[in-house]
Specification:
Distance between the termini of chain B: 65 Å
Structural class of chain A: alpha+beta
Strand content of chain B: 5-15%
Number of domains of chain A: 3
Largest sheet of chain B: 4 strands, mixed
Distance between the termini of chain A: 31 Å
Number of strands of chain A: 11
Strand order of the largest sheet of chain B: 1-4-5-8
Radius of gyration of chain B: 23 Å
CATH superfamily of the largest domain in chain B: Butyryl-CoA Dehydrogenase, subunit A, domain 3
Largest sheet of chain A: 4 strands, mixed
Largest interface: A-B, 46 and 47 residues
Bound molecules: flavin-adenine dinucleotide
CATH class of the largest domain in chain B: Mainly Alpha
CATH class of the largest domain in chain A: Mainly Alpha
CATH superfamily of the largest domain in chain A: Butyryl-CoA Dehydrogenase, subunit A, domain 3
Strand content of chain A: 15-25%
Radius of gyration of chain A: 20 Å
Number of strands of chain B: 9
Order of helices and strands of chain A: HHHHHHEEEEEEEEEHEEHHHH
Oligomer: heterodimer
Shape of chain A: globular
CATH topology of the largest domain in chain B: Butyryl-CoA Dehydrogenase, subunit A, domain 3
Helix content of chain B: 40-55%
Helix content of chain A: 40-55%
Chain lengths: 371, 402
């Protein structure tokens, strides 16, 4: 566990209590059963905003608390434990990062305060296919007078069903640029996708959406900015995955300590002890990587990209393992919809894909290291 | 067929090949090519078309759905070599076996070994013709891996048995006509207190409650027995012999289930083809994602080694010996099946994670559900851990510390 300051400890404890009491896995089950396209409970998100979680990385000048990425990561870890369905990570971390890193004063003033209160849900729209690949962006923003005309198809936009604001990556002719696009702009069509995690991953098409000149975030050749934004989004997802892995592991451990077969509790079988010891080991490595990446971001260090890829790759591998073991070690019970093991493995595979799977990040790590 | 003087066994086999080909040409409806529904034998064909019905009837009457079972009980009476030839000929024309399910895979071979003559005459022909669906009443809430701790009570009431208790995870329980169950007839002894019994699922007091699985379907049930009266003639073998019989049946189950691995080699596009489609190739035709490519290579090589092992096991057991390698088939088959499913998802990315509705094609949705369902193959029929225990203890002689 990273060494936390007082605010961070308080925030983490508060998030843990809230998730346990107000947003247990049964709350996610309700969301799943309700089958709404937005994929979360607005009241739960409102409560999160009320507690200030939507403003954790936003400077005080724009209504946030400026506690930083590690702090927000702690919250996402805790809410991830119980599979809390919420756009928190998408809006308050991923999309917010684009505005923080590249936004003009006017853009920040226009949007950050509303994101901080939860009034605006923002979503990052980058990928156009089923596998993360920022090198394959084909959406186009064409200059038109003082402004831009945006066209293209974005796939699996997290929280795309509820977003009031999209941060869209598009080719500008000079490179890839990021654009602020209000969700109610003419020419936007959303198509819900019904996916295994029962959360929102919408297909969003932009068909000749007219934007002002002030819609561009940073420069028209913003590949570096996009990369930095993505790294923050990835670190946030990895934090959520950490919480899921920890909880899935703890639930499995608790089960092995109660279920009896052959006149013994299962946890007395050495074959299973070792399986748990291995998972514990991997989770410890995962925690170091996840916290390390968040700390690097807060410190503005120059190894952010490397640590983020380490963090995401490790998170993918570990949660993959733990989510499989959760089902296997529960036996028949783990295969039932009534049990929550299935919820964990389904959400796990979605997050493994989010912003690059393990192979993507290992490849990237190698490139960053020059081999 | 004209009767020709045949002395050479190879000639006899060739003659059989011609006979089989001719019979298939006459009886297998071309419309059924590629229409095999592996679950039909468990779930029952919901809306079987007339061709499928006719095909099942023809195979059932010929006994070729259970080709090596004795003719007197409705089987095909073929030798193993002939059965293999039949399979090859079926493969050539795209024909598949419409007779299956737990009756074929598990119960039939067990009855052939342990049942009385009357029981064989009564139950086996129905299995051969695919007219009765069987389910397996083994597991209970408290008795999974430790199956012998089962508690479902079976009392001798003079002219009948009376059964009370609960089974669970009963695959196809809601569609089954009959159930073969392990029940406790003696509470003073763990293993020797178990008996093997057959019961009609329509008997008063039998109640099934489907359980929904993570894949969204409900293919198995909780099964409750409340004062279920079972005729005495339905006991298989001796009272207290159930553990021996039940374990023998599990061996048949495992041998068949390890075929799960064959799903991974079977029909449909290869992983490498799926990957080329979703991920693309580099300038030299290699799958563009280097790590994914390595994983696919490993998987396909392991599947190949598995296929060779399955063949070796078959050859070794036919030549009379017991094949040690047979003990690894279930675990390897399960691993290959699950690995293939995970890799398919990885290749398809978000497209492999759709639940239903627009945006996903049938193959993608199938991959998702298959992936979830497939998590069961390392659990049912004896978990991977239990299989490893068996290997360690029975084969390697590594005994418990106590
Ligand atoms: C390079 C080296 C340096 C060492 N330095 C020191 C030192 O500085 N001080 C010191 O006191 N000792 C030292 N040792 C000894 C070391 O602690 C023992 O070798 C070790 O504890 C294993 O004991 P053993 O060799 O008797 O093997 P055994 O205990 O006989 O074990 C043999 C194998 O069985 C496994 N095994 C044993 N029990 C179990 C179990 N219950 N469950 C599962 N698997 C089990 C072991 O993991 C091992 O693979 C050193 C050993 C080596 C190789
Ligand atoms: C899809 C599906 C279909 C099924 N169909 C049927 C059916 O038709 N009829 C039927 O009777 N049953 C059926 N089963 C039940 C199946 O046989 C049991 O689920 C299985 O035997 C495991 O038992 P359990 O679920 O109680 O798990 P448990 O026995 O509680 O096991 C939990 C975990 O502990 C491990 N474990 C247990 N003991 C040991 C040990 N000594 N050493 C190491 N690890 C151990 C297990 O491997 C598992 O990982 C089905 C199950 C599934 C999932």
């Amino acid at each position: 566990m990273a060494v936390l300051n007082e605010e961070q400890t308080m925030l983490r404890d508060m998030a843990r209590e809230w998730s346990k009491n107000e947003s247990p896995v049964s709350a996610f089950r309700k969301v799943r059963d309700a089958g709404e396209a937005i994929g979360f409970d607005p009241a739960a998100f409102a409560a999160q905003a009320e507690m200030g979680w939507t403003g954790v990385i936003i400077p005080e000048a724009y209504g946030g608390s400026d506690f930083g990425y590690l702090s927000l990561g702690l919250v996402l870890e805790e809410t991830g434990r119980t599979l809390t369905a919420s756009p928190l990570g998408a809006t308050a971390l991923a999309a917010t990062s684009a505005l923080l890193l590249g936004g003009s004063e006017a853009q920040k003033e226009a949007w950050l305060p509303k994101i901080a209160t939860g009034e605006t849900i923002a979503a990052l729209a980058v990928d156009e296919g089923p596998r993360h690949d920022p090198s394959k962006i084909e959406a186009k923003a064409e200059k038109s007078g003082d402004g831009w005309v945006l066209s293209g198809e974005k796939a699996f936009v997290a929280e795309g069903d509820s977003a009031h604001l999209f941060i869209v990556a598009a080719q500008t002719g000079e490179g890839v640029g990021l654009f602020v696009v209000p969700g109610d702009a003419a020419g936007i069509t959303r198509k819900s996708r019904n996916m295994v995690d029962a959360r929102s991953h919408a297909a969003v098409s932009f068909d000749g959406v007219t934007l002002g000149g002030d819609a561009l975030i940073g420069s028209a050749d913003g590949a570096d900015l996009l990369d930095q934004v993505l790294d923050r989004a990835r670190a946030g997802v990895a934090a959520e995955m950490l919480g899921m892995a920890v909880q899935a592991f703890e639930d499995t451990l608790a089960y092995l300590k109660t279920r009896e077969q052959f006149g013994e509790i299962l946890s007395r079988f050495q074959a299973l002890q070792h399986r748990m010891a291995v998972q514990f080991t991997q989770i410890e490595l995962m925690r170091s990587a996840v916290e390390g990446a968040l700390e690097a971001i807060d410190a503005g260090r120059d190894d952010i990209a490397e640590l983020v890829s380490l963090s995401k790759a490790t998170a993918c591998d570990t949660l993959h393992l733990v989510s499989r073991e959760m089902i296997q070690l529960h036996g028949g019970i783990g295969m039932t919809d009534e049990h929550h093991a299935g919820f964990y493995i389904k959400r796990a595979r979605i997050l493994e894909n989010a912003w690059g799977n393990a192979s993507f990040h290992r490849e990237r790590y190698a490139r960053l290291r020059g081999y | 067929m004209a009767t020709i003087e045949l002395t050479n066994p190879a000639d006899a086999l060739e003659a059989f090949r011609k006979e089989a080909a001719a019979w298939l040409a006459e009886n297998f409806p071309k419309t059924l090519v590629g229409k095999e529904n592996v679950l039909a034998t468990v779930e029952g064909e919901a809306k079987a078309d007339p061709d499928a019905k006719a095909w099942k009837k023809a195979m059932g009457e010929k006994g070729w759905g259970t080709p090596t079972w004795p003719k007197e009980y409705g089987g095909g009476g073929l030798s193993f070599k002939e059965a293999r030839v039949l399979q090859e000929e079926m493969g050539k024309v795209g024909a598949w076996n419409p007779i299956g399910g737990m009756g074929v895979m598990m119960l039939g071979p067990t009855l052939l070994e342990f049942a009385s003559e009357e029981q064989k005459k009564r139950h086996i022909p129905l299995i051969c013709r695919g007219e009765i669906r069987w389910c397996q009443g083994y597991s209970e809430p408290g008795a999974g891996s430790d199956l012998a701790s089962l508690q479902t009570k079976c009392e001798d009431k003079g002219d009948h048995y009376l059964i009370n208790g609960q089974k669970t995870w009963t695959s196809g329980g809601q569609w089954a006509d009959w159930c073969f169950a392990l029940v406790r007839t003696d509470t003073s002894k763990k293993h020797e207190g178990i008996s093997f019994i057959l019961l009609d699922m329509k008997t008063p007091g039998v109640e099934v409650k489907p359980i929904r699985m993570i894949s969204g379907t409900s293919p198995f049930c909780e099964t409750f027995f409340t004062d279920v009266k079972v005729p005495k003639e339905n006991l298989v073998g001796e009272l207290g012999q159930g553990w021996t019989i039940g374990k023998r049946l599990l061996q048949h189950e495992r041998t068949n289930l390890s075929g799960g691995g064959s799903m991974s080699r079977g029909q449909g596009p290869s992983l490498s083809d799926i990957a080329k489609h979703y991920v693309g190739v580099d300038s030299e035709g290699r799958i563009a994602d280097a790590e994914l490519r390595t994983k696919i290579i490993k998987h396909e090589m392991e599947a190949k080694a598995f296929g060779l092992t399955a063949r070796r096991v078959m050859a070794e057991s036919k030549s009379g010996g017991v094949s040690l390698a047979s003990s690894i088939l279930k675990n390897v088959g399960a691993r290959i099946t699950q690995e293939r499913a995970e890799l398919t998802l990885e290749i398809m990315g978000m497209n492999g994670l759709g639940w239903e509705g627009d945006g996903f094609n049938a193959a993608e949705l199938g991959a998702t559900r298959g992936w979830l369902w497939g998590k069961a193959v390392s659990i049912y029929g004896g978990t991977t851990e239990i299989q490893n225990n068996v290997v360690a203890k029975r084969i390697l002689g590594m005994l418990d510390h106590q």
